[in-house]
Amino acid sequence: MENIALIESFSEFKDDKLIDRVTLMAILEDVFRNALKKKYGSDDNFDIIINPDKGDMEIWRNRVVVEDGEVEDPNSEISLSEARKIEPDFEVGEDVSEEVKLFQLGRRAILALRQNLISKIHEHDNTNLYKQFKDLIGDIYTAEVHHVRPKAVILMDDEGNEIVLPKEKQIPNDYFKKGDNVKGVIENVELKGNKPQIIMSRTAPEFLEKLFEQEIPEVFDGLITIKKVVRIPGEKAKVAVDSYDDRIDPVGACVGMKGSRIHGIVRELGNENIDVINYTANAQLYITRALSPAKVSSVKINEEAKTAEVSLKIEEVSKAIGRGGNNIKLASLLTGYEIDVIREGAAEEEDDVELREFSDEIEGWIIEEFEKIGLDTARSVLKQDVADLVRRTDLEEETIMDVMNILKTELEG
Questions:
Q1: Does the model's pTM come out above 0.90?
Q2: Is the pLDDT at 218 greater than 90, yes or no?
């Protein structure tokens, strides 16, 4: 009964672990055999009988009967007089099977045996967990916030697995509290020692792609293909889509009536602005579409250098560049071309200079403030009204005046 009681106490691990009864019994046998090797030097002459249905086991030691005084290996041989204490009619040369009780292994051995079992079960769980989540890399996963740390949010799934959402993998305006359900994509599984660490991301382009698959049936069914996704998490994203069926409008299907289909995705991403565009192999047309909502007049491509000069009317420039330069940056990432904006009608102003040329005299963040509203050359800034620039940027009047003086000195000097 001691063996049965011990196994039943060990079986408590099964309830909280991803381990079936048969596997548990196999681990048990391995652990017991290790204990027998330490106690007796070998486990070759032991039979361990495990009943996975009842959860019980027996250990039997097999020895050969030899004459008294001729025992050379006490583990595999037993003297005739000792054998007859077990069964009075034993004779020399016969096999004796004797049940081993747990207490015979000693208290320290039993404690070590239990610790070894725990270690083996954890090792089994970690191996299974690693394989399970390796197969889920790139898939959407939902888990609950367990606790919030400064550098990461620790999540727990329904099976008690811990998932880490690092700060840098969170959308900038994400805010989570204990008990919230968080959706993201499994980005990686790393082994920290013997324990797998599961990393979730909400900033990866794959997360947006998987949300499209989840929310838009035509994408899930393969009728619409997502060619590429680029993102500035929490700010803006561009998704190029294509359909091999001319009857399907891929952009319309993804956006839905009045944005009904894409609204849920936008909300999940913290109101990230999403442009869905039709993919095309025509590079000029692709770049034109990628710069939406700006209306492009013409595109000149240098295929070797992978650059594109895009001509736009003055009023379209700020749309093409976008807030903080995000629109043109994403268009470049989407198409694979470095895009330069050329203002129509500015050809006669050959002495105009890009603001970036003044980076030694004007701080980068100030230049970025002008670029956010589509002003990226000296003359484009000088044409503006100071009061209007104060209203449209986060710059003080004094700063704007200093910048204008620097620009005037350069152009008029």
A1: no
A2: yes
